[in-house]
Write a structure and sequence with these properties.
By secondary structure, the chain is α/β, with parallel strands linked by helices. It folds into two domains: 212 residues, Bacterial extracellular solute-binding protein, family 7 (D-Maltodextrin-Binding Protein, domain 2); 110 residues, 3-Layer(aba) Sandwich (D-Maltodextrin-Binding Protein, domain 2). The protein has 13 helices and eleven strands. A six-stranded mixed beta sheet has the order 7-6-8-5-9-11. A five-stranded mixed beta sheet has the order 2-1-3-10-4. Strand 1, helix 3 and strand 2 form a beta-alpha-beta unit. The longest helix has 34 residues. The two termini are 39 Å apart. About 6% of the residues have low confidence. The protein binds calcium ion (CA). The site of calcium ion (CA) has 5 residues, from loops.
């Protein structure tokens, strides 16, 4: 990364220098790229692609996001690249999307990278890890802090090109049918919680149960599980958990800002003309901000409904429970990075960035939130 000295910065912000170097640099660059892509546009070859998703068809926010990105790409390309979106299970089972796109059964997939932890442990650092970074920080790491390059390196081994296309924001901690007053209340608790969060619950003496979205309500209602996490107020409300569980805990320590992804078969992507590649990348950025905005807006609306529901109580996890979860999370992550060199490389970048940006957040976000409550 280029080091910017004060003198250089002052030079860059002076108008003369901007016109002299920046704008001229830009125009010569665009001249070159328009020359390159001219040939490509002239080919007029049209493409019909398939996108397979890990979500049920038309699933709120995530499924809608997949349909929107396909439409934006089609619109921007003037119909040159058309993408048909398949819900999970329509073309291949939801959790086979990664392999199917890798092998070229479909050109694109839509999911979250921690689903593929069984294929490469390092993938989960690009989605969310307990006590990791929030949405804004994850975007900063991926786009500006070297995270996306590492993600591309990891997926390249699977013949895939990844792109962030959304973020859930901070999730909720989950629904419980008993109070959590100390870490001892986790002992014997049967909770539906996937991924690293599940490992933490198991280490704390509970059991992490994996069940597909469609089974969670019945399992909680029948006592097969005592607790479940899902997403946030909007998705949780739609699932109806408030009708069968009394306590809704926050924060979602296990998913502080889960990145949603699009992955593209590398051969298919390489075969595209440059302007279509650029359209896909641009649509991915648009989708990223659209999904996060949608999560934030809908979660805030549905939280109000839940706050007004007299049958449920919304609680903060006690401090000592969160502290214990954090200690265990660090152990769980240490174990992964000590046995897998690629995870170690990715996590070193993640953790270094997190430390740096957390200090900045103290001076910016936290100080500002504190100021609001004075
Ligand atoms: Ca979740």
């Amino acid at each position: 990364m280029e080091k910017i000295t004060r003198r250089k910065f002052v030079k860059v912000v002076s108008t003369k220098a901007v016109v002299g170097s920046g704008l001229l640099g830009l125009s010569s660059c665009s001249k070159q790229s328009s020359k390159q892509s001219f040939h490509n546009i002239q080919t007029n070859k049209s493409y019909k692609w398939k996108m397979i998703t890990t979500w049920p068809p038309h699933f709120p926010v995530m499924g809608e996001g997949a349909e929107k990105i396909a439409k934006w790409i089609e619109d921007m390309s003037g119909g040159q690249l058309k993408i048909h979106v398949y819900g999970g299970g329509e073309l291949v089972p939801a959790l086979e999307a990664f392999d199917a796109v890798s092998q070229g059964t479909a050109e694109m997939g839509h999911g979250a990278s921690y689903y593929w932890a069984g294929k490469a442990a390092s993938t989960q650092f690009f989605a969310s890890v307990p006590f990791g970074m929030n949405a804004q920080q994850m975007n900063a790491w991926l786009y500006s802090g070297g995270g996306l390059e590492l993600w591309e390196e990891v997926y390249s081994a699977f013949n895939l090109v990844p792109m962030p296309i959304g973020n859930s924001g901070v999730q909720m901690g989950g629904w419980f049918n008993k109070e959590i007053n100390s870490i001892n209340d986790i002992k014997g608790l049967k909770m539906r919680i996937p991924g690293l969060g599940g490992k933490v619950i198991a280490e704390a003496g509970g059991s992490a149960i994996l069940s597909a979205g469609g089974e969670i309500f019945t399992n909680l209602e029948r006592g097969v599980i005592d607790a479940t996490e899902w997403v946030g107020p909007y998705h949780d409300y739609l699932m109806g958990f408030h009708k069968i569980a009394k306590y809704y805990y926050f924060p979602g320590w296990h998913e502080p800002g889960t990145v949603l992804e699009m992955f593209i078969n590398k051969n298919a992507y390489s075969s595209l003309p440059d302007h279509l590649k650029s359209i896909i990348k641009t649509a991915a950025y648009r989708s990223n901000i659209w999904m996060l905005s949608e999560f934030e807006t809908k979660n805030s609306e549905y939280l109000q409904k839940l706050i007004q529901d007299p049958k449920i109580q919304i609680r903060n996890f006690p401090d000592d429970v969160l502290k214990k979860f954090r200690t265990i999370s660090n152990d769980v992550i240490d174990e992964i990075v000590s046995t897998d060199p690629i995870s170690r490389k990715v996590y070193q970048s993640f953790e270094k960035f997190k430390k740096k940006i957390s200090t900045w957040s103290e001076y910016s976000e936290r100080a500002y939130y504190n100021a609001l409550t004075l």
